Amino acid sequence: MKRVTSELDKTRKNFSLFSKLKRKSHLNSQVWSEIEEILIQADVGVVATSMIIEQLQEKAKEMKLSATESIIDVLKEQLKQSLMKLDSALNTDAELPVWIFVGVNGVGKTTSIAKVANLKSQGGKNIVMAAGDTFRAAASEQLERWAVVCGTELIKGADGADPSSVIFDATEHAHATNASLVLADTAGRLHTKANLMQELEKIVRVANKGKGTVTEILLVLDSTVGQNGLQQAKSFAESVDVTGIILTKLDGSSKGGIIFAIAEELKIPIKFIGVGESHEDLFPFDAEEFVEMLFDFQEEM
């Protein structure tokens, strides 16, 4: 995980401020204010930060802590638990599982599908990708190129075709060819457009009518937009049962703290993190390792 650690440097820089805070001996109101400030600066968000601080103060009182170093150690464990209580395992519990990828344009959704396809095909699974973004020709072309790289099969329709029918056809084809997983792209829709969100509901409904079963609806978020991503997640979760988050572009973001806002406010697990453009730049999310990387202060100490 050394590669991932280096790619998280911008977010780690925010959390490294805790290393200086640990040197302060006495836990007082100023320390509490600085903890809050560091979390907000890391884009954990005001609401989630307030929830975290409240829980932390309760633990400090319960454990009768007075040393700043002790409370930072407790904070680290609390953040781990916040993420670990959400199940980041991917659901393949169906004869033919279908994973539907949703998100707005520009977040790296189509690329994320290819990266997941690459991971799963390396694991020996026969993957079928469905080009459900029929309103953007470049999306199908992009998936076609990725299908060659990843050694997977792509089912697509004509430009402007009903995306539900394309994904339905992909599941039927996957069943006929004994494929083990369908990964379905959808149009990058604006979460503020009600008709597009309704279309997404239809896609999920139709996908469940064929030989496949939708077991994951994965929302792709761009970590560089911070709290705006949280608002996107809230809007999508109102329309469909989002089962997990793929957080992309962490290598270029100092706002990785959004992970804790998603966990605290939405209770949606992070399932993958993306740290680059290559098909090998997506990693299954490990909550404990992620927090350990953020709190690795050896160099700063």
Quick overview of this protein structure:
The protein has helices at 2-7, 9-15, 17-21, 29-41, 46-63, 68-84, 109-122, 137-150, 163-176, 194-207, 227-239, 258-266, 287-294; strands at residues 97-102, 127-130, 153-155, 181-184, 213-222, 244-248, 270-274, 282-284. It is of the alpha/beta class and 301 residues long. The chain has 2 domains: 2-86, SRP54, nucleotide-binding domain (Four Helix Bundle (Hemerythrin (Met), subunit A), Up-down Bundle); 97-285, Rossmann fold.
Give structural notes.
The protein has two domains: 2-86, SRP54, nucleotide-binding domain (Four Helix Bundle (Hemerythrin (Met), subunit A)), CATH 1.20.120; 97-285, P-loop containing nucleotide triphosphate hydrolases (Rossmann fold), CATH 3.40.50.300. The protein is built from 13 helices and eight strands. The chain has helices at residues 2-7, 9-15, 17-21, 29-41, 46-63, 68-84, 109-122, 137-150, 163-176, 194-207, 227-239, 258-266, 287-294, and strands at residues 97-102, 127-130, 153-155, 181-184, 213-222, 244-248, 270-274, 282-284. Strands 3-2-4-1-5-6-7-8 form an eight-stranded mixed beta sheet, sandwiched between helices. Helix 5 (46-63) crosses helix 12 (258-266), helix 6 runs antiparallel to helix 13 (287-294) and helix 9 (163-176) runs parallel beside helix 10. The chain is elongated, with a radius of gyration of 21 Å.
